[in-house]
Give the backbone structure.
Amino acid sequence: MKVKFNNIGKKYEGREEFTLRNIDLDIDDKDFCVILGPSGCGKTTLLRMIAGLNSITEGDLIFGEKKVNEVPSKDRDIAMVFQSYALYPHMTVYQNMAFSLSMRSVRKDIIHERVLDAAKLLQIEEYLYSKPSDISGGQRQRVALGRAIVRNPKLFLMDEPLSNLDAKLREHMRVELVRLHKKLDTTTIYVTHDQIEAMTMATKIILLNEGKIQQAGKPDEFYAKPNNIFVAQFIGSPSINILGGRIEKNRFISNDDVITMKIHENDSAKLVEYDNKPVKLGIRSERFLAGKGPDLFKATVDVIEMLGKEKTLYVRTETGVDLTLTFPGHFKYEQGEVHEFGLDSAAVHFFDADTGDRIN
């Protein structure tokens, strides 16, 4: 099912400011759309508006071809998976999964078939007659998913469903959710503050900040072509390096005059109007050059994080600018050493110093 937001806004009673404003975009049928953003950005509010749990102050919400602003939650043909699992502790796994269908007076043989099919899909058949207290957190999350699946909804809504799991189980469940989405072939809208979940699971990401969309599109676009500094800093780990500086005669010069770089030919035309004006340069940690290039600068290795196949260096220039660099794990560096580094001019991002918007 396609979901369309037409200039959606939300303002709570008694507040002057809108929690959400100017939400205008389409989620295509069968998309796995992740709503991403920091705490308090409005992502859960948006999900609750889709679910019909929060009213819409302005704009229209469209499911398929139908406006659903005033349609009750129970009539929207959706299923929601919560962060807290929300399982009934006195019921078995089977009873939890069957509950919503029983409340709708669905025939028992149909309920039984759907519960068994969902249990098999989620590999929890052996736990069907266990209580939630007798199974692990990961298994409880599968039960919560199963409860949603048996309803055969047109739209799945998920509110940070993996946040209560440990790191290794979260990684496993990310893969399982992607596989599950492909099998069910149903539109899914998933809320998280975890960029790794968004980048690895989504077919489309909506990144919110302060109630507004900062960027919407495919995951690789966020990393390679961020709309602004906020997007660039929110996506990617380690976080992107941002350097203040200026453009002079087709060169970038940092504010402390230590780091300089000839602007790549692909960016020259776009930066002409910024000559003799301040800009901000962004560069990912893996796009530094080790001891080579036409414009080298010196920095002292302050901290080293060894991550196996790669190592992250936290370095400091002679003027006290801190940078984060990533190199293959076999590169030899020691704490306290001074090394020369360069910038890959083809991989840098330029942002307007005042607005933070991307220039190139």
Notes: The radius of gyration is 25 Å.
